[in-house]
From TrEMBL, chains A, B, C, D:
Keyword hit for Transmembrane helix: yes
Subcellular location(s) of the protein: Membrane
One Gene Ontology molecular-function label: voltage-gated potassium channel activity
GO CC terms, sorted: voltage-gated potassium channel complex
Name of the protein in its database record: Ion transporter
Organism expressing this protein natively: Caecibacteroides pullorum
Transmembrane segments: 38-56, 68-87, 99-118, 164-185, 225-250
Domain of life from the UniProt record: Bacteria
Length: 301, 301, 301, 301
């Protein structure tokens, strides 16, 4: 009874040890200190190693005995990632914000599959989600140009999202209809690959996206004629998402060019820049800048 | 004789019962009342169910006895859609406008194939046209952002239509010529798949749209050389519709940005917005707005 | 001797019969008179029939005896096109201008293959070049909107031509190199389809244009890796012609919008418009308009 | 001993013979003199011949005895290119600048493979790198329009580079994940082509770039569903590089249009133009012009 009390007390101290939290925070979240930088490099190395192991394992080029070693390394790395995840949650004041952020979810999903693989066969391969953790690489090596460009890309995609959603809704209705009609036309041909509607819809998507594997192809004259029509429609339709993204990027580009220094009147400043890079004058705040200010706090994770 | 007279009288009353018409109108066309909303949700559920049934039927995963059930459900749903169509025609003051609108034609085509299937085999699958009725989903759930974006997309495609039509006319002449020339070159090779000109034209379309199934491929050196030329032409040509749609979207985007509030001078208002979303001032009317006003009346259907 | 003199005299009169020339000109070049319109419709009908005959002939669906009929019809149509060509040359004051124009060359190429087919087998199919004569259809039916749009498209492509030429020069060097390297890597694999460099270059073009037939595919790990690199390069490179054409079209669009009426200040006038379509005021001449004025004289052909 | 001293002296004189250097420079680097022009034409002829020889050799259409001739021609050409390379290095004041320029590296790589092929089999085919030397053709024939257009293209690609790099980083993570998941799903199917993760990644790249060979295709329902999702993602993603390049080109176009003559107010001047092509007034310097001035010095090579 007394023993549990001591344990409870220590646990309480651990949970509220602000000094320890600060120390861990500077290691796992920041990369300005030597320790933080070392941690980040080890982390990235572990992620790359872990993904490479999964790829190598699938190639069946090792002798049978080596697989035990591979498995042990994988467990060790997973343990490391689990401790890292717990440390991240532990040292934050608002862990919930991290846990439900993009990186928080990816970090969790990067460890879970291995634990799941004890119960369910095949989930083991899902640990490749770890690869997405590599996006951190830009922050660690302070490649801010790339972060800015990446943000511009994300912003363009984000602004285009409702248009692209509408577009996909329409494409889904179209491929369902086209697939069904092709099933009605081609389904009766001997050895037809259009043997059910889901396969025909799969064919319609393969065709409309211009992938064109050729594993399912029309053989009847009517089917070929309809396919040609679908291809030409797909040809026009491929222009739509491109047009959407192009138009958005042109518009974002122009906004960027409008960020003109009030003192020296030169433009070409990033959305996030606070001061003119030529004369140091304070730039006016832009809407994306405000959005980015909020995001920058989350970017840490 | 007297009996018919009574029947005729009742029919006349039914046809001119404005109160009933108003009641039905509020149910089938509007979704503001609880009844109207319920009707819309049942309708969308029925459409999805109906399309799913067709897909499931084609997969041959049910025991033979289940098909009778499937067929009965399909007839019940078709009856429901038929009654709905008649109700829509009945309750409008200008039914002709609805009947010849996009949704009016789709609604009719969504019921006809089942009736046709009594006489003609295979038409049964055309009922998948019902899927297009799902476009209503955006209006029902008041996803106006998506409707606006969809309208912008449609406007861009509509403005681009003559250019794209010209483009397709040219593409058709090109694939006909290319197909014929390839038939002349490849047609004599043993086991050639270029066994007639329609198949060669089909091949030219498959190639030029960069789908490339590989079910028909050139085997002679001259044929391969000409194919390479066609591909490189197709590569340039794929740029044209994309360029058309991109240019139109950039231009539409810019018009949108020109809708500036006369009081607070902020922009970014939708084409359809009547009042500034920041300060509530009345915005100036735009040409597309006027066009949309007309369309909004039809949009109901 | 006297007989030849009469013949020569008649021939001379025929060559300088301005009245006859004017009459023929109004029939074959213009479509404002009933006779001219009738001629144009017969001409278009003959072209369509002639192309359809070639297509039908290749399908081997007629009994053997029908081919004589097909061949006779073809000769009659070719005779008609030949007389038409001679009439066009005859009635113009500057026949050379027509003979070396796009339509002049197409008109000649539309008749030659049939005459050539007496001496050379296979040239017969080249008569499909006739299909290009159908472009006249827009002028005949006075579809000027389409002509304007087509001119805008052509202008954009024409302005983009040097950029696209440079681009293709680079692509050719790239596919030659890539094809040779892939031959060095894959050529030794058993049953390799990379059996010589031209085939490897053909494969590189098929891959880079994202057509991807799959008739030639890499099988070695190194070959697959290099293919993936080529695909990703092709993916970026496909953006270049699209970007070129898009940028040109955006710029042409903007010029179009700059054609503002000096009296009512409304824009949206075609390049070729001379008067404001809203208030009738004389518009300022633009450079493309001047270019089009010259072209309009040639457009007749 | 005396003999070596003389040799050394001659060598020294040769190394500092400014007159000879100037003479060689005017021949190998310039094409304004008849000798320089002749040299350039012989050079381009040799490159084309050399590339054609490699292609012809691979086609196995010559009798066995001819290969000795081919090989001798190849050695002679390689010797010529080697001497040319040494001459280029010799006659420059700052040879280092040339050696590490794009053309310097290409010129070296154009000779090395043949020497390497004495030791390593297969490197022989790398001499196709010579094809890249043909880019000089535009400078030699003074096709400055094309050079300007090419520079605009390169500038656009260069400005877009960080965005495209970010994009590829993301695509690589995506195809690795997708490939692994597809291996987990499809790997167990009998005769599955998804037999290891590298092959699955290769498949993911083939699919996402819409090449779609069809040598590896999913067969299970889950695999086909996931493939369809990947295709639709790829369809959206293909829009991104196009959007990037289009936006950059639109923006570059606009800068070009801003180069307005201060005297006659006409625009449309090249980035590199120093004087107005209409009235001869001095144009203002632009940033790209300054960049080009530096580059122009290197362009020689």
């Amino acid at each position: 009874m007394k023993y549990f009390s001591i344990l409870h007390q220590r646990w309480y101290h651990f949970l509220h040890n602000e000094e320890l939290k600060q120390k861990i925070y500077s290691i796992v979240f920041e990369s300005d200190t030597p320790k933080g930088k070392l941690f980040d490099i080890i982390l990235i190395g572990s992620i790359v190693l872990s993904v490479l192991l999964v790829i190598l394992e699938s190639m069946h080029i090792f002798p049978h005995s080596a697989y035990l070693v591979l498995r042990v390394v994988e467990y060790v790395l997973t343990l490391f990632f689990t401790i890292e995840y717990l440390a991240r949650v532990y040292c934050l004041k608002q862990p919930r914000k991290y846990i439900f952020s993009f990186f928080g979810i990816v970090d969790l999903l990067a460890t879970l599959p291995v634990y799941l693989s004890f119960f369910l066969h095949g989930t083991h391969y899902l640990l490749v989600i770890r690869a997405f953790r590599l996006i951190r690489i830009f922050r660690i090596f302070k490649l801010f140009t790339f972060i800015n460009e990446g943000n511009l890309l994300l912003r363009s995609l984000w602004i285009s999202a409702p248009k692209i959603f509408i577009f996909f809704f329409f494409v889904l209705i179209l491929v369902t209809s086209m697939g069904t009609v092709m099933y009605a036309i081609e389904g009766d041909a001997p050895n037809s690959q259009f043997n059910n509607i889901p396969n025909s819809i799969y064919w319609a998507i393969v065709t409309m996206t211009t992938v064109g594997y050729g594993d399912i192809t029309p053989v009847t004259p009517v089917g070929r004629f309809l396919s040609a029509v679908i291809m030409l429609i797909g040809y026009t339709i491929i222009a739509v998402p491109t047009g959407i993204v192009s138009a958005t990027m042109v518009s974002e580009h122009k906004k960027l060019e409008k960020r003109r220094c009030p003192r020296c009147h030169r433009d070409g400043h990033d959305f996030e820049a606070l001061y003119c890079k030529y004369c140091g004058a304070r730039l006016k705040k832009t809407e994306p800048e405000k959005a980015n200010e909020e995001r920058r706090n989350d970017e840490r994770f």
